[in-house]
Amino acid sequence: MNIFMTGGTGFVGRSLSKLLQGRGHSLKILTRSVRDKNTDGGRVSYIEGDPASYGPWADSLSDCEVIINLAGASIFKRWTSEYKQKLIESRIKTTDNLVKGLAESDSKNALFISTSAVGYYGFHGDEKLDEECSSGDDFLSELAVKWEASADKAKETGAEVIINRFGVVLGKDGGAIPMMKPLFRYWLGSPLGKGSQYFSWVHITDLVNIILFQIENSRLEGPFNCTAPCPVTNRELTKAIASVMKKPLFMPPVPGFAMKLVLGEFADVLLKGQRVIPKKLMDAGYEFRFPEINQALEDVLL
What we know:
The chain is globular. It has ten helices and 13 strands.
């Protein structure tokens, strides 16, 4: 298949690109700079452009059967009013532009796979959340709702739409692990706040294989929780990392008020969390390579 991808040079995009090439697919990756990019034996071409600004890059959508939208500024940063605007624009404008380009292209029956986040659900304590649960009312929830609504407009072009609600991605070369690993290496690992908040995660290998699974199964559509079937509490995660790294765990929990002083509103994402279950993926027959946290951590930490 011919596949167009935004965010293809990021952590998830690099792994996904490698997997798709291995399956014989051809890729067009939109990037702000094509310098020092090779063509990977002809299966990948890089198109220069900013997805948040509509431009000539959109012409490249015309012969593509699949559009994968991975673009979006990281949420792992203090949310000032300026940065909130960046979070909004990097998601909504990019998605709007892709849908506009798709509408003006010849690809009327494309598969449009767009990213969202488990933050869609808001904060529900230990309640299990599947794809039928409603959205929350905090900033991240409202952003996810708008993001998904933007992607759903692709249906007006005749496209099938899949929306992937990512959990926290675990991998060796990106995601959450590089931020956490140094703390445990120097015996500074500890739970955050009460430690009872749930952490919905997914191994990078599963995440990219989920997207491949969706591409190769035409019957799938709508929202999907891209998380492992066994979410853990923050306290369980902390103990698991310490155990896998064979490091002592004696530091007291990081106080919630201290995190809020440093991180502001974003601290709630780390202190509250969601207990998300990938019901639709399991019902569709996807088999997770890394369903358990210890197994996943042994792969990415050792």
